[in-house]
Amino acid sequence: MSELNTSEIKIFFLIGIPGLEHVHIWISIPICFMYLIAILGNCTILLVIKTEASLHEPMYYFLSMLAISDLGLSLSSLPTMLRIFLFNAPGITPDACFAQEFFIHGFTVMESSVLLIMSFDRFIAIHNPLRYSSILTTARISKMGLVMAIRSFLLVLPFPLTLKRLRYCHKNVLSHSYCFHHDVMKLACSDNRVNVIYGFFAALCTMLDLVCIALSYLLILKTVLGLASFSERLKAFNTCVSHICAVLIFYVPIITLAAMHRFAKHKSPLTMILIANILLLVPPLMNPIVYCVKTRQIREKILGKLFTMCGR
To answer: Which pTM was predicted?
Structure first.
């Protein structure tokens, strides 16, 4: 037993849905369908924005960044989800786990950054519509996107590096269907205080994005209430509905999961796993649907391409 406890763990085990292991193959059907819709939806949005010159505007450039973040989230979690639910193969090597955790957290922070920039975009569009195009030029948008991507991946780069230096010798069963920093560091049998402190710092940075989004909407609300007529207010607010939905879809599962990890004394493993899976499955699935339903230009261009293809 002493020899077993001091030996290094060579493989981690992810879990599916506790108590429903016998129906994982059936659960894999809706999961695969959700991944398929998410990937097709986001690829369609990227294709339409790229090919339609009328959509080469700041709002749609930011929507492209959101679609790229969603694709990254989907593709980062897809391998382990399929291995667990479709092939009943929950094992993953530590290095592969650290790599997956890096990409999942990287694209999560990137999506948070994109949502922040999109709130700034909505504020400029409502507060100063005449200077909107001159403020958000293509060059500025490109620089903002580059800074956002660099910031996202630099922020999470210490995660795999600090996890790599830890020793894992007692436990090797993770509590999610993918590798999650807080989950992996709890398996360590060496001092993980650096991981705890840096993880808290990274979480604060993500929550700071949410605070800035809330401030942007306070400024937007102040501007909207200053408009003369009710129809103008309604029209201005309607341009923000898609973004508000995207913010809620993204942040509600994150805040719920973080609060349960930190404060819940008697947390249900099933609830934790379901919320964690919602966090990675639902935003990439719902964002294209929300923007297609609520954004007339996107909807018309997509339908136009579909009718053209059907006509051929």
So the answer is: 0.91
